[in-house]
Each structure stands twice: as C-alpha cells, then as structure tokens.
C-alpha cells in the first residue's frame, strides 16, 4: 500500500453515475450536473449534496421537488458543460439542445434525451444547513426505451470519468429477496 492524499480519497468512493437534476421555480426550468448522491433506501430514497451556491439549491429548497435524470455516456461532454455554467444566466435546456418533458407528479421536467428519470420530492432537510444534504423520495420512475445504449458514466473526481464496462451477472449467487427481484 502507498499513502494517498486524503483530499482525493472521495474518488475511490464515488457511488453512482453522474446525473442531471432538473428543477422548476418561478416559471423557469433549470438543470444541474451532480455526482454527489447515494441511494439511501430501495423505495427509492436518494440523498444528494447541492451546494448553497448553486442555482438549484434555492429552487430545491423552495419547491421541494426535482427530477433526477440519468444521462448516457454519449451525453458526457454536454453534462460537463451543463455543470460549468449557472442557471441564473443560462437557459440550459435551450443552450444544450435538451428537451424538457412534463413529469406527472412534480413540476420539474424530465429530460427526453436521458436514459431514465426519477421524479422526487424532498423528504428531509435536517442536514441541509450543516451539510447541504437533501434526502429525496422517488415518487415516479421513467425509462427511455428508445435508448439502446444504456452505458452511464461515473466521475472519478479530478475531471476524468469512467464509462460502464462489462456487466457481471451473479444473480444465481444472490440471496433471493422477492421484493427486489
């Protein structure tokens, strides 16, 4: 083993794909790039960190709802560019050629070009003040059957990303929990 810089240790734990978070507030839809999230419960419940400096923070706090969308690896450059500008100044749907679709349970839009979307409502804000951590309950899930390539991409934390690779099917080795099969 070799010592590794503590401030970069998060790179080893980055849990899931880079996602897009859409909100709608004061008549304006916005999109934010996010990689700091985790599944908390199978229901599904998601915890995510949204910095108070982000335009999305105020919208999420005010409306208490959003959509988490999963972009494919083919959208990686667009997703990074979305993260490099602010919704305060830029209409990100127009600027990046993305299509906002109406969600059924929240005012925030789905993103047509993504692989999947999860409509969410804020379930808990007790850790927002201290950690900027929102806990979200998924209320409706969507998938895009037209997207044949289902590869996602994951942040390594230093401006590099990895794309999903070969899948391992170990279902026969898993404990059978009927509610999750």
From TrEMBL:
UniProt-recorded Gene Ontology molecular function terms: FMN binding; oxidoreductase activity, acting on the CH-NH group of donors, NAD or NADP as acceptor
Keyword Ubl conjugation assigned: no
Taxonomic superkingdom: Bacteria
Cofactor: FMN
Annotated Flavin reductase like domain residues: 13-150
Entry-linked PANTHER family: FLAVOREDOXIN, FLAVOREDOXIN-RELATED-RELATED
Family named by the database record: Belongs to the flavoredoxin family.
Entry protein name: Flavin reductase
């Amino acid at each position: 083993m070799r010592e590794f810089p503590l401030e970069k240790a998060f790179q080893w734990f980055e849990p899931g794909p880079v996602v897009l978070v859409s909100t709608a507030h004061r008549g304006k839809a916005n999109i934010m790039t996010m990689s700091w999230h985790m599944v908390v419960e199978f229901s599904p419940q998601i915890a995510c960190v949204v910095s108070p400096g982000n335009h999305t923070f105020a919208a999420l706090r005010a409306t208490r709802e959003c959509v988490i969308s999963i972009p494919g690896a083919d959208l990686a450059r667009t997703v990074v560019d979305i993260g490099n500008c602010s919704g305060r100044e830029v209409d990100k749907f127009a600027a990046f050629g993305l299509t906002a679709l109406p969600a059924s349970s929240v005012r925030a839009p789905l993103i047509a070009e993504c692989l999947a979307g999860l409509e969410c409502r804020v379930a808990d804000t007790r850790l927002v003040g201290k950690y900027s951590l929102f806990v979200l309950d998924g209320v409706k899930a969507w998938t895009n059957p037209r997207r044949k390539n289902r590869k996602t991409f994951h942040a390594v934390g230093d401006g590099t990303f990895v794309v999903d690779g070969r899948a391992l099917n170990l279902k026969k080795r898993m404990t059978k929990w009927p509610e999750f099969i």
